[in-house]
Amino acid sequence: MKNIALACLALTSLVLVSCTDDLTQIPISAATTSTFYSQTNDFLQASNAVYSDLRGFPDRQLNLSETRSDNLYAVSDGGVRDWEGINSFQKSIAANPYVSEAWTTNFNGIFRANTLLDQLQKNGKVISDAGLRTRLEAEAKFLRAFFYFDLVRFFGKVPIIDHPVTANEAIAIPRSPVKDVYALILSDLTFAASNLPETYAATDKGRATRYAAKAALALVYMTRSGPTYDIEGPGLGVSEWSQALTNLNDIITSGKYSSVSSYTSIFSYTNENNPEVIFDVQYANGLTPVVGATFPWVLVPDTWFQANGKGTQGGLTIRPAALDLVNSYTATDVRKAFSIQSGYTFNGVAETRPFIKKYVDLTRVPTNNRLDWPINFIVYRYTDILMLKAECILRGGSGGTQADVDAIVNQVRTRAGLTAITNVTFPQLLQERRKELIGEGSRWHDLVRSGLIETIMPAWIAAEDVQKQMQPFQKNYILYPVPQAELDAKPGLYTQNSGY
């Protein structure tokens, strides 16, 4: 049972009901809510409503990060698919539904977080427990920062909206410089890291903890430290590796998390909330309204499910995994067989192209609703934190050595069934992250942060684009376009990102 999942979606309809239609158009067209909350439960429901906008986060990372990266060669063989423009760097994707969803849903979450924060300020004294009031404020700020960070990584400049606004106010708010958006993100996460609890009771599993905030803080510092590429994107070219390392070490030395002995058990349907998990998006199945997941099948072709006697899910045609990624695994690497399906036959036709099936347990396929998978999506996990620490050290963060880097990488490799290596370089670490975190939505962000994207992506396209469908990579494609609907809502308010 995923308690926060139940609260997030089942109770959302009880909160901000009058704004349902308007929330799909934040920030250009929005109606504010001035609901007066008269009891503690009202605030808890409002908090749950903010969490509910995490539901699509996993799918977004698979569609906009995994698919955009060199992990997939997602050129369709069955008609035009929405992911093709993402993977192929097409210029005409401003109306792409994946791009629009990223903007809209994140601002939905920001709107709800702002509403909760506003009501806590105005009416929070009805909550007799001062500790709970502070916790709810910290949760709302964590989530607002989380949504804004997602926006910055995909779009660069975005409008700063830190309080409920009317529709007329919204259409006058321009996009702010990335550094100003980061200032809000860092302020919110710093507050969250200082005021969120270290753990929760079982009934509140899934809520953000102090260490989730520290993980987010570390990743923000690292992303800011990436190169600017002269595009007003997520990298500011600052050197905050030491700040990131401090937060990562706080997580590691807390004693709250650890590596599990088996790679496959991290993602087991019967081992959720295991010691690796620092923060995840929680789901539950078999409920009304539906609060299950859809991300397990996003990268999986429907014919594979059919070949295994299951119903179609929605993955449609195949999004092949990149051959250089598949071939980078050695024969003894346990991560390959678990994460990648190398072939299958359906209706007498053999499909030899590999694809990522990391989250699929064929014994757990929903029988009645493809939107109702019972598995959580891990956003921050302990092994990722360790490898981020290694990255900070290699990038100049103080307080670590080459021996620390080697120890971290070899801990990961040993679990995968590989031999130890020494004097690990940054490109080697990046490649190890690619194999460890395959299908988890981190690859595109890793490439952007690394500064190597301008060499890795062109070389990969030259080697893998056998159908000659991909556009030449250019640095402008590090960012996605501002959704066309946002440009059309108030012509002249936003300027489109370069390259589109």
TrEMBL record:
CDD domains named in the record: SusD
Ranges of residues in domain RagB/SusD: 350-500
Pfam families: SusD-like_3 (PF14322), SusD_RagB (PF07980)
Major site of localization recorded for this protein: membrane
Signal peptide: 1-18
Entry keyword set: Cell outer membrane, Membrane, Signal
PROSITE patterns (alphabetical): PROKAR_LIPOPROTEIN
Domain of life: Bacteria
Localization annotation: Cell outer membrane
Residues in SusD-like N-terminal domain copies: 91-222
Keyword Translocase included in the entry's annotation: no
Xref: InterPro entries: SusD-like_N, SusD_RagB_dom, TPR-like_helical_dom_sf
Family statement drawn from the similarity comment of this UniProt entry: Belongs to the SusD family.
Name of the molecule in the record: RagB/SusD family nutrient uptake outer membrane protein
